[in-house]
Amino acid sequence: MSTIGVIGGGASGFFSAISAKQHFPQSKVIIFERSSKFLAKVKISGGGRCNVANACFDNRILAAHYPRGENYLRKAFEQFNAQSTVDWFESRGVKLKTYSDNCIFPQSNNSQTIIDCFMQEVINKGIELKSNFHVKHIELKGEGFSISNDEETFYLDRLIVTTGGQPKSSGLKWLEHLGIAMIDPVPSLFTFNMPNDPIRELMGNVVEKTIVRVEGSKLTGRGPLLITHWGMSGPAILQLSAWGARELASRNYQFTILVNWLNEMKEEDLRIELSNALKKEPLKMLTTYNPFPITLRLWHFLLNRAAIPVELRWKDLSGKNLNRLINTLINDRYQVEGKTTFKEEFVTAGGISLKDIDFKTMQCRNKKGLFFAGELLDIDGITGGFNFQAAWTTGFIAGRHVGH
After folding, report:
1. pTM (2 decimals)?
2. Contacts of residue 203, Cβ cutoff 8 Å, sequence gap at least 6
3. How far, in Å, CA of 109 to CA of 48, rounded?
4. Cα(298)–Cα(292) distance, rounded to whole angstroms?
5. Enclosing H/E stretch for 193
6. Residue 398 to residues 24, 155, 310: CA-CA distances in angstroms?
7. Side-chain-facing half-sphere of 84: CA atoms under 13 Å
8. What mean pLDDT is predicted for residues 252-260?
9. Can you give the pLDDT at residue 343?
10. What is the mean pLDDT of the chain?
């Protein structure tokens, strides 16, 4: 009986192990986790709700949501995609719900539902769990492997490594001796810090539709923007952080963004909107009549930012005041001075070079019997369930082929 080892007790680790046991039921499968808790990142993901997938059922469009890994994943999704994920969970009794932004969560809105599902699968399939096992060494032993910590050694016929994204390149050094090419990791999903900007006083304000650009680049983010006590967050910002991960790191996270608070609104259209507001409520104070889909607090902030006198009425809005207001609404400049990553939920760009992996099997091209899955690979998606989808897909494929 062959023994299959999975290093890493997270999302891709469990999915790899379950797939391996499903496809090779005669094999012994063991999951090794360095900490005392399995599926810790699943537990806290999505604010404890666990965004398991995205309702994007066209493989080509699905793959386009990955700043790194798109071309490789397009083929991988032919084996396991978003529909496969939905079918997998629902066939195991997990009811799912799709929200208006296409994000798919368990109907319970509780990540424990997903954890319970995995744990039940592990019990049903007889997969062994070994916690507090920090792998220090991997050695090639004939056609197999030995892995060891400071106390124990295990001999394995096949090995799947799913240790997740590493915030620093030092986290990859234990694999270097296997001759695998590594891409230096940098944070991929992070929020923008604006330590000296008064907009932070509006923390909690959300604008549902915005466009945010990084000045001097082609980087653009679209969607909701959340003002926080340290700066800006929300899907529009996180999109920018993902697509610009390497460029923004090269700028040492010092750059300028331009915010269009009115989404796709262009200058000529905005002039018409403001003219209509003037005709509708000419005698009202600008501060009391807000014709745009932003909060009154933000409207007041932007009026002040545009240096519009508080006593001005709509009928008096013209000339320089009008031009300043237009520029502030659709081309608002902010200086970013640093980032904040989600410490427990961090996502990285970088890891195992995809050129070294056969995506039909997830096997390392130059080390037979060694497979990789999950965020340890140089794959990362934007927010919305895409990173979990990559974990399920690569884990499923690794498990499907690990016994051959």
Report:
1. 0.92
2. 227, 228, 229
3. 8
4. 10
5. strand 190-193
6. 12, 19, 63
7. 21
8. 98
9. 58
10. 95
- Ramachandran assignment for 39, one of left (phi > 0), alpha (psi -120 to 50 degrees), beta (any other): left
Residue 345: pLDDT band (50, 70, 90) is: low
Residues in a beta bridge with 31? 6, 129
Per domain, the residue ranges of the chain are 3-187+343-401, 190-341
What is the rounded distance in angstroms from the CA atom of residue 129 to the CA atom of residue 240? 38
CA angle 120, 125, 128 (to 5 degrees): 90
Residue 4 pLDDT > 90: yes
Radius of gyration of the chain (CA): 25
Q: Look at the alpha carbons of 268, 270, 271, 275 in this order and tell me if their dihedral is positive or negative.
A: positive
pLDDT digits (tens, 9 = 90+) for 149-193: 989 999 999 999 999 988 888 888 888 888 889 999 999 999 999
Domain at 3-187+343-401, CATH homologous superfamily: FAD/NAD(P)-binding domain (3.50.50.60)
The structure tokens 């996180």 sit at 238
pLDDT at 8 over 90: yes
Q: Is the pLDDT of residue 16 over 70?
A: yes
Instruction: Quote the Cα angle for 14-62-366, to 5°.
Output: 55
- Name the strands in the sheet holding 128-130, side by side, starting at the edge strand that comes first in the sequence: 128-130, 28-32, 3-7, 158-161, 370-372, 363-364, 357-358
- Structure letter (DSSP) for residue 254: E
Which residues, 6 or more positions from 124, have their beta carbon under 8 angstroms from its beta carbon? none
Residue 62 confidence (pLDDT) above 70: yes
**What phi, psi does 175 have (nearest 5°)?**
-100, -10
